[in-house]
Amino acid sequence: MANRSPVPGPAERTPSSRWWCPSVYWAAAGLSLMVFLVPVFVRWALDGNAHAHPATGYTIPDHLKILTHICQAILFLIVVGAGIMCWRTSRRLGAVSISAALLIGFCLSGWASPYINTFHYVSASNRYDFNVISWGPYLPGLQGQPPGVESFNLAVFGFAAASLWYFVAIAIMRFLHRRRPRWSTLRIIAVTQIPMLLVDVVGVQLLIRFGGFCFANTFPGITMFADEWYQRPMVSFVTFAFGCVLPLTAMVFSAEVRNRTVLVLRGCDQLPGPIQPWVRIFAGIGVVNLFIFVFAMTEALASLLGHPSATVPQWCQLPQPHAPQHSLAA
Q1: DSSP per-residue string spanning 100-151
Q2: How is residue 190 annotated by DSSP?
Q3: Contact, 299 vs 116, CB < 8 A?
Q4: Which of 43, 68, 94, 258 is the 20 to 30 A CA-CA neighbour of 55?
Q5: Contact partners, residue 4, CB within 8 Å, separation at least 6
Q6: Mean pLDDT within 290-303
Q7: How many degrees, rounded to 5, is the angle at CA 52 between CA 46 and CA 56?
Q8: Cα angle vertex 284, ends 171, 94, to 5°?
Q9: 125 CB-side CA count, 13 A
Q10: pLDDT over 70 percentage in the chain
Q11: Residue 310 contacts by C-beta under 8 Å, 6 or more apart in sequence?
């Protein structure tokens, strides 16, 4: 009888086929995004934009100046605390955890901030905050727009600290799973959205009141504190909590309950050892940035249904266009 090569089973894949798995696909997406962003930020920096916008043309109350710096410190500590927690979890697991990978993705997602203002000025940065000239005009689809300001409390620390929503939601799901073991996964995920509504409303309102940013667009009938400088359109809760946080937490929690590998990391354990941490990290970058970009564009499209607010405070108003040292087309 002729010799026949053994057919690889589910846990035994050929060297070539093991690269065809979800973790590699997501990692390729994350790596491609980072490679794409390098020339964007290089051109932005070479054109002389890597500095704060001139602090002129606006006034801000003294107490809000203090709160702005407090906000910077709080957001920084949130990100550092989450990083320490994820580092300890990864050390205990002996591999980059899914939470660590997603946290890195959140920390590298601020590049998409300008897309929120694609059609209207929606997300207004606090100009007193640490800031730089916006890189928006260097992103595809935004060329020709007057560059605004990208603040650290929003585009840097803000997007990174948004991971707190993920960690809180996961913690609530795990708590409910322990206290209500008979509840279905779907029921736990659905019930979690109730306290997450409170977390989002309070969290975002605190961020606004502490000078993080403000909303420059209003939606009649569905805006909290409408026509006040600290207003908050509830459409942003739907786009972020349901459109970004919910899919990520549902994916991770469902995998935990079934004792399976999270989809975006599936197949990673079959890859060569030295490359596994990088695949996990870039897979987290890929999936988070996809949802953040979808969130940003959904916010931009939703702004077409609202109208500009007349109560945007001076410290959050769009500054006068800043002429770069070189042409954007260079």
Answers
A1: HHHHHHHHT-GGGGGGGGSSS--EEE-TTSSEEE--GGGSTT-TTSPP-EEE
A2: H
A3: yes
A4: 43
A5: none
A6: 93
A7: 130
A8: 75
A9: 31
A10: 90
A11: 227
How crowded is residue 135: how many other Cβ atoms within 10 Å of its Cβ?
A: 24
SS3 content of the chain, % helix, strand, coil (to 5): 60, 5, 35
Tokens standing for residue 14: 């050929």
What phi-psi label fits residue 187: left (phi over 0), alpha (psi between -120 and 50 degrees) or beta?
A: alpha
Structural tokens at position 207: 């961020």
Contacts for 298 with CB less than 8 Å, ≥ 6 apart:
239, 243
DSSP 188: H
Residues 248 and 295: their CA atoms lie apart, in Å, by: 13
Residue in the block written with tokens 């300008």: 114
Other C-beta atoms closer than 10 Å to the C-beta of 130 total 15
Coil vs helix vs strand at 261: coil
259: left (phi over 0), alpha (psi -120 to 50) or beta: left
The DSSP bridge pattern shows strands 213-215 and 123-125 to be antiparallel
Tens of pLDDT, residues 2-57: 333 343 444 455 565 678 899 999 999 999 999 999 999 999 999 999 888 888 88
**Count of CB atoms within 10 A of residue 305's CB?**
12
- Cβ pair 316, 214 in contact under 8 A: yes
Residues 6 or more apart whose CB falls under 8 angstroms from that of 287 comprise: 26, 29, 30, 102, 105, 248, 264
**At a CB cut-off of 8 Å and minimum separation 6, what does 167 contact?**
82, 85, 99
The 8-class DSSP code of residue 136 comes to G
Give the pLDDT confidence of 116-170 residue by residue, as tens digits. 988 888 888 899 999 999 999 999 988 656 668 899 888 888 889 889 999 999 9
Residue-averaged pLDDT of the chain: 88
